[in-house]
# Entry
Amino acid sequence: MTKTIYLINHSHTDIGYTDVQEIITEYHVDYIRQAMEIIANELANHESCDYIWTCENYWQVDLFLNEAEPAEIAVFEEYIAAGYIDFGKNYLNMTELVDSKMYEKYLKEGDDYSKKFNRQLNSAMTADINGYSWSYSDSLLENGIDNLFSCIHGHHGMYPLFKNQLPFWWESPKGEKLLVWSGEHYHFGNELGIVPNAQTSYQIKDEYMFDSATEQFEIATKRIFRYIEDLTSRGYTYDFLPLMISGFMSDNAGPSEQLLGFINRWNETFGDQVTLKMSGLNEFFDVLRKEDLSTLPTYAGDWNDWWADGVGSTPAATKIYKAAIRKYRLLQELTDGVTDHFSTKEQELLTNAEKNLLMYAEHTWGYSSSVSEPWNTLVNELDYRKVAYATNGSQQITKVLNKELVKNHGRAYPKAHRKQKYKIINPYNDVVQSDTTLLIEYWENIEGRSVSNGLFPFIEVYDVDTNEVYPCQIDTTARAFEITINVKLNPKEVKTLSVRLTDEPKMTRNYTSFVQGAERVLDIVFEGKPNDYFIETEHFTVELSNRTGIKNIILKSNNQSILKEDYDVPAFLGIYEKTEIRTSPYEERRRMGRNRKGKHADRSISKIRDVYVKERGEIFTTVVIEGQLEGTQMYAIYLKIYNALPKIEASIRIQKNNEWAPENLYVSLPFSIGEELFVKKSGNVMRPKVDQLPGTNTEFYLLDTGNMYLDETNKRGLGVCMHDTPLITLGDLENHPIELFRPSDKSNNENVYSWVMNNFWETNFKVDLSGFYEFKYTVFVSEDTSNIQELDKKMDQTNQGIITIPI
# Structure
């Protein structure tokens, strides 16, 4: 039987890695022009064209449409209609950092464009990235994409199902099915020697690895027939197979007309055994769908990405990105996703914000020599540009949200002698009980009196409409005074609050007694009196220790701890890992394989220097845990334990040293109230090590909002919001043999660590993690919560908060 090899010529999109990002965009526009020139030459010389160029993603098409002249676009679309140019409808090769709703908007753009053509354009492809959130399958299916071609890169990663070059059905969370072809690396056609002067030996290890003398056609003959023989021995039964190829050996590579000469020579020589044929992505799936696919296996679950961890190499920029996404989602909630009332400029701002945020979430994290040459100019240029995507996106979405609040909700700007009035907005369709902060800037006055610490006991917060007085707590910041209150709001409710001065100060008056001595230390157990070892709130008893920081947290509603019984590291303490360089910075990292640390990695845990209560107020108590941690100059935990809300906030403040060696920094999150861990990933709730495709990554996960636990029997949920840093790792931190997910192993009640920083990748991760950081976590308990969907809503609301503006 003659086999047909379908060759899909494309350019793998790395926005960065091989050059600065704006030049990369120009590459991909020019590659389309180069492909059009090849097609035009073929049509002129042969009156037909066997050459087919596939745009890997719709982003490439979008770039071309925005830059090309109308005449060029007309030819481009003529070639698409004829099948000479094809395109995948995936927008870009993304990490799971991407907001799913935002991404779906741009998938829809590709789908809308595809409907211009009278041919089936219903396929997507990805290259490099090693997985996708489960919700990605629904996002594709709902935007006219029925087929996905996956080109996994096994560098520090792995394809699913324990083998590749095979099709399967991926069942989405909504129960629909996506046809997937799990293929070879996107340069594998080059490895076989098919593209003249563009061969490589990246994955294939044979006698030709370093052979520059043997003719390429001879090498290709050996490798192609050996590869087919190997596939057959693995049970491959199709009489065709697909291979991705690039015109030259590089990421961001262009087309090659010489490919046609090789194909013609091959088919003249071996066409009766193996035929080579150029194909578009969609054409390949047309061929595949003519087969009987009823017996294909179906798998449901998350395809957990091995390449999600780049976000940990730029923790400061990732924090900016995460804050911008929260504002984006608040805007969606506030407007119910309807932006028809936006001006043209506001729509442009929103679009630019979305595209910048998408570019930050794209999978390329730096220049190819970021680790081996961290001083290199291109390394730093690409780094600053990557950060700029997050920064610019944050600026733009901040402007859009602010304009919405000014125009439609009356937000006021600073004004001399203004009356302090505030609008508290619940943007959600649910009842929300939350803390919120009213700001009074240092230059303001209240009722003609300058704001100062001495005025604090006289400040009162009240509802303008009902005159209800809210208990409050006031803190001093660098340029303002923060007044924190608790408020309960009905769905979409808006309250108007203001501040005034009272005649009598609101202070707790008491004489010094033996319970609190003249030195003002609370260290005696006395009924009804606080002490500095136990923090009592309406919902929690928090026990402190000079050895562990937090010793225990008891939930009063069931008198049980919300900490795991067998945790290894106390809550919020840091863990630092360093792998000593025994070879070179590059080689030491390469040797790690799928581990993100070396076998000889040193590990250190925070040592407690001091634990003390910094402040007790009507709304919360602040506890400071000062520690020492290797790799840092400072590691401090600031706890805000709320009196009337079942919530504890932790701010981790770090001064990180510079280090060229591979590093990891974690924060321990040993919380639990149920037997199973749930997480939110790119818009979908799943259970790590349970809801996954066989053979996928169980080492770490990139989350959307954080961790969740559900006690269904008692209708109680616990959430851990990770506001700034999205990676977690589970279980043992030791270097170990990697175990891929197997459906028989359905247990995930392990220790959880927030993976704050890493610089382990040997090519394009940012190696310098030094600097000052603050990472925020919120732990909360939700009573009367009967299912994970309800808890997920509380997670979203806690993560994003409510809106408070001056009016």
User: Anything to note?
Assistant: The mean pLDDT is 94.
